[in-house]
Amino acid sequence: MREYEMMFIIKPDLAEEEITEIKDRLRKIIDDFGGEFTDEVAGWGRKRMAYRIEDYAEGIYSLWHFKGQPETVQELDRVIKISDSLMRHIIIRKDEK
What we know:
Elements: E1 2-10, H1 16-32, E2 36-37, E3 42-53, E4 56-68, H2 70-82, E5 86-93
Antiparallel strand pairs: 1-4, 1-5, 2-4, 3-4
């Protein structure tokens, strides 16, 4: 399995239940594809962005480190792209040392 780092920004006007639901859905994808979290999931909370995205000046940031297969990343990318609740995301494969 490869190590990945994923950062995503959730729209700030969502209810707490919706935010939890989004994060649970992403966790389930990682689990379903046999992935595992390598570090504690870091929620940075509400932060001001450098520029507006979709008329939002703030976003709810999260940073996750996990191990998974390339198929895991493809499914996460697909689900995030079709979700209206997420503004931006990036998934990076960590280099092997």
